[in-house]
Amino acid sequence: LKKPTRSGLQQPLVARDARDVASHTRLRGLLRYDVACFAITILGMWALTVRTSRDLLEYGFPTVALLRSPQFHSNIYWCCTLYSLLSLPFSLFSVPGLQKVLTHSIPT
To answer: Which whole number is the average pLDDT over 38-49?
Structure first.
């Protein structure tokens, strides 16, 4: 497969050299880290909800009372905070100029 470029020439969609493969491998590692952080946050949310709102869980399923509970909203807040802290390594990509150096890509 080839994709057209602005100049009209065709470029292959696959990596051409070891540097391209290395950058894909680094980004894949960051993606795995992000998925792991998300999974940890979801498990933490589940554990906090079971621990703090056990009386609102009927038959093991969330109810409207649980979704309206201030404790449940507090659990959501702290899990969002945890995920934000775990996502801190990605803040380097928002520094002007560093995104191109780190990813070797053109911003869209």
So the answer is: 94
Q: Which residue has the tokens 């969002």?
A: 80
Q: Give me the percent of the chain exceeding a pLDDT of 70.
A: 69
Instruction: Give residue-wise pLDDT tens across range 56-94.
Output: 776 666 778 888 889 999 999 999 999 999 999 888 877
Rounded to 10 degrees, the C-alpha dihedral 93/96/101/104 comes to: 80
- Rounded Cα distance between 78 and 40, Å, is 13
Q: How far is it, in rounded angstroms, from Cα 58 to Cα 72?
A: 15
**Cβ atoms within 10 Å of 102's Cβ, excluding its own:** 15
d(CA 49, CA 63): 12
Can you state the angle between helices 70-86 and 18-52, rounded to 10 degrees? 160
Alpha-carbon span 22 to 57, nearest angstrom = 48
The encoded tokens of residue 104 equal 């070797």
CA distance 29 to 19: 15
How many CB atoms are closer than 10 A to CB 79?
20
